[in-house]
């Protein structure tokens, strides 16, 4: 039984991972690792406030800006990675096969988003995740073959989508428009990342990917950096989806155990 554990672990990680190539850029892994650390910190503070352990205003002020910065970094990096993966597969996949490949990868991320929807609906009820960051990234990957053809022009297209959020800020509408950024007057979700403006952030990242990594190759010089702990941060970046999926259950379980001990 023990000798089969490595194989089993590889299969599990294969189901969770969205990366299909071993050729990775250290700087992207590092930035994604920074984003995952920021996310864990924010969610820890959110849970402390949610369970009444600490009076922290996580929905306003500095921590609100911190959460927005975290989401922006995550989504921009997801967009940045798409031209790189496209450059490595466009010669062997075209047309329908390319759409099917991105559709499969995006649907997997979106499915994890649906699991988060179900889990938060069962656990917290009001405020459950309707269209969160995994739904957004999954949708962006599914739509990638359409936008990849525009290359650097995605910078302008993305900026346009981001700016489109301004006139929609006070627009209300039926519940089925929630993914677009239009929602009923009374609406709250603990993780709400609608297509407008956040698909624009992904497209800005995509346009930057074409500029910085043309043909899937780094076009700029990057000096070697071996900061203390940088390899751990990179490892977290390589496994960001796995950490995203398990960190909240772990934090909540530890908090509940601690609260039970001090009760």
TrEMBL record:
It comes from Methanofollis liminatans DSM 4140. Pfam families: HGSNAT_cat (PF07786). The chain crosses the membrane at residues 33-56, 62-86, 107-124, 130-148, 155-175, 195-213, 241-261. This is Heparan-alpha-glucosaminide N-acetyltransferase catalytic domain-containing protein. Keywords: Membrane, Transmembrane, Transmembrane helix. Residues 24-249 form the Heparan-alpha-glucosaminide N-acetyltransferase catalytic domain. The keyword Iron does not apply. The lineage of its organism: Archaea, Methanobacteriati, Methanobacteriota, Stenosarchaea group, Methanomicrobia.
């Amino acid at each position: 039984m023990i000798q089969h554990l490595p194989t089993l672990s590889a299969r599990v990680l294969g189901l969770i991972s969205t990366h299909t190539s071993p050729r990775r850029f250290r700087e992207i892994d590092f930035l994604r690792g920074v984003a995952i650390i920021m996310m864990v910190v924010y969610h820890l503070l959110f849970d402390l406030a949610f369970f009444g352990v600490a009076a922290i205003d996580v929905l306003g002020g500095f921590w609100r800006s911190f959460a927005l910065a975290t989401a922006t970094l995550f989504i921009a990096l997801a967009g940045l990675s798409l031209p790189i993966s496209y450059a490595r597969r466009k010669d062997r996949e075209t047309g329908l096969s390319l759409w099917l490949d991105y559709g499969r990868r995006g649907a997997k991320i979106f499915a994890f988003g649906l699991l988060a929807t179900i889990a938060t609906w069962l656990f917290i009820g009001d405020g459950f995740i309707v269209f969160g960051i995994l739904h957004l990234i999954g949708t962006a990957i599914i739509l990638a073959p359409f936008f990849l053809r525009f290359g650097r022009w995605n910078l302008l297209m993305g900026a346009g989508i981001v700016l489109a959020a301004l006139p929609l800020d006070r627009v209300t509408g039926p519940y089925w428009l929630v993914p677009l950024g239009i929602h009923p007057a009374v609406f709250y979700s603990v993780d709400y990342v609608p297509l407008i403006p956040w698909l624009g952030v992904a497209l800005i990242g995509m346009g930057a990917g074409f500029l910085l990594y043309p043909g899937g190759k780094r076009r700029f010089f990057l000096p070697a950096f071996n900061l203390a702990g940088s390899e751990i941060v990179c490892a977290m970046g390589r496994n960001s989806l796995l950490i995203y999926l398990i960190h909240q259950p772990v934090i909540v379980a530890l908090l509940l155990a601690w609260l039970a001990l001090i009760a």
